Amino acid sequence: MSVRILGSGTSSGVPRIGQDWGACNPADPRNRRTRASILVRSQTTTILVDTSPDLREQLLAAEVSTVDAVLWTHDHADHCHGIDDLRQIMHARGGQPVPGWARPFTFEQICKRFPYIFEGRGKYYPPVVDMGAMADVFTVGDIVVRVVDQPHGGITSAGLRFELANYSVGYATDFHAMTAEMREHYRGLDLWVVDALRRAPHPTHPHLESVLGWIKELEPQRAVLVHMDQSMDYATLATELPAGIEPGYDGLELRA
């Protein structure tokens, strides 16, 4: 099983409009961050997590033309407003809608916002996604997906754990607290890809100090930080982080 970081940035990306690089060195390409999304792959299965507004460029860079399923963590714009780019994937699948899953509230919100994606429009615009409510445990191809609800401001996001044979990958983005259920869900991972927005505390996202504490507690074999803003320079972080923890970047491939 492998993970590709499609996008490692926060909702405004890096740089922010206006060439705002913050503390990030613009000469380091690893600091150019699109909105957060990942691919999880086995030899036979490809799962896309979230449809960021940068999805077209992300999939072109990854040289990916089709996926077996799309999972949405929540309905915020930076995680779902690239949904129209799934139309080309539907065509690549021979006109078959892309299977998609989201937790019930997210399911409702996305379907309300983009009804044409799920219902189609007339003869020439068939449905793009076959949407279903995300269960606590389900399987896509040969990959088992386990789900936990995470507090994210006034809503919840889906925390994901992917398992294949004896290998496990966790993806935790857009949450602000670590619940008992989340601790059990993410304990003992081979790889944990986790939101670390910035150094300063934030009301709806984890900050670096809290994430480092959870990594120490939950003991993944390897941890990669994502959903980072313009205050998180790649090279600076890489020299400061403990062994086994690294900043992610767009296009990073993580393989078992």
TrEMBL record:
- Sorted UniProt keywords: Hydrolase
Residue ranges of every copy of the Metallo-beta-lactamase domain listed in the record? 34-229
Q: Region Disordered: list its residue ranges.
A: 1-29
Q: Which InterPro entries match?
A: Metallo-B-lactamas (IPR001279), RibonucZ/Hydroxyglut_hydro (IPR036866)
Q: Organism source for this protein?
A: Sphingomonas pokkalii
What is the protein name stated in its UniProt record?
MBL fold metallo-hydrolase
Matching entries from Gene3D superfamilies are given as: Ribonuclease Z/Hydroxyacylglutathione hydrolase-like
Coiled-coil spans are none
Tell me the leader sequence span: none
A Gene Ontology MF term for this entry?
A: hydrolase activity
Q: Which Pfam families match?
A: Lactamase_B_2 (PF12706)
